[in-house]
């Protein structure tokens, strides 16, 4: 329903409350743990396990509806370690606002290097760079992202690496974490 509301504002059309309610119901049906269990990317599971074996702390900072994001985290937890996500992921946090540098500061005392991995340069990586993290941008086209523009922006920042896949992090592990 958020996208519907944004489109209504963008195109100056009055949002219909009945449509909002119906879209919310559809979203609750689609955005559930059972669906997320099927669509968790295998390379995400592989990468989290790889980092865990090397004692690299992993955090998830995600934006969105807390219930929906909780369903995603629950599915990821089940796929990782039979529900015990904290064997692999040190912490997670859901924010309902656009990510900003303050969201990253809570993990600053955990040492260097720190990276934000994201599929949106503007929404994931840029706020982390501003907070002093390194960035790993894995471009992915969405209806609201100009991927080519984001790639050009990411290329212009020396603190950001651009990879094609989460598994590229494993391939470049010793460059990213030279003391590990």
Question: Would you write up a description of this structure?
Answer:
The chain is mainly α and 180 residues long. 51% of the residues lie in helices and 12% in strands. The chain is built from ten helices and five strands; from the N terminus they run ααααβαβαβαβαβαα. It has helices spanning 2-10, 17-30, 33-39, 42-53, 66-81, 101-105, 121-130, 147-155, 167-171, 173-176; strands spanning 59-63, 91-95, 115-118, 134-137, 160-162. The strands form two sheets. It has a three-stranded parallel beta sheet, covered by helices on one side. The protein has a two-stranded parallel sheet with strand order 1-2. β1 (59-63), α5 and β2 (91-95) form a beta-alpha-beta unit. The radius of gyration is 18 Å and the shape is globular. The mean pLDDT is 85.
Beta strand %: 5-15%
Strand order, largest beta sheet: 3-4-5
Q: For the CA atoms, what is the radius of gyration?
A: 18 Å
Main beta-sheet annotation: 3 strands, parallel
Class per helix and strand makeup: mainly alpha
Count of runs of 4 or more consecutive helical residues: 10
The total of beta strands comes to 5
Order of helices and strands: HHHHEHEHEHEHEHH
The CA-CA distance between the termini, in Å, is: 44 Å
Low-confidence stretches: none
Principal-axes geometry comes out as globular
Average pLDDT over all residues? 85
Helix content: 40-55%
């Amino acid at each position: 329903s958020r996208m519907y509301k944004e489109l209504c504002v963008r195109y100056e059309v009055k949002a219909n409350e009945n449509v909002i309610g119906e879209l919310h119901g559809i979203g609750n049906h689609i955005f559930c743990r059972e669906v997320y269990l099927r669509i968790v990317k295998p390379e995400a599971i592989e990468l989290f396990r790889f980092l865990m074996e090397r004692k690299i702390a992993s955090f998830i900072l995600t934006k969105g509806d807390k219930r929906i994001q909780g369903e995603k985290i629950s599915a990821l937890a089940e796929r990782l370690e039979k529900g015990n996500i904290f064997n692999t992921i040190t912490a997670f946090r859901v924010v309902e606002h656009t990510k900003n540098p303050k969201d990253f500061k809570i993990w600053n005392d955990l040492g260097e290097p720190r990276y934000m991995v994201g599929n949106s340069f503007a929404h994931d990586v840029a706020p982390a760079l501003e907070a002093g993290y390194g960035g790993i941008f894995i471009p992915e086209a969405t209806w609201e992202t100009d991927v080519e523009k984001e790639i050009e922006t990411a290329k212009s920042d020396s603190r950001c690496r651009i990879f094609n896949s989460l598994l590229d992090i494993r391939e470049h592990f010793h460059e990213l974490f030279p003391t590990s």
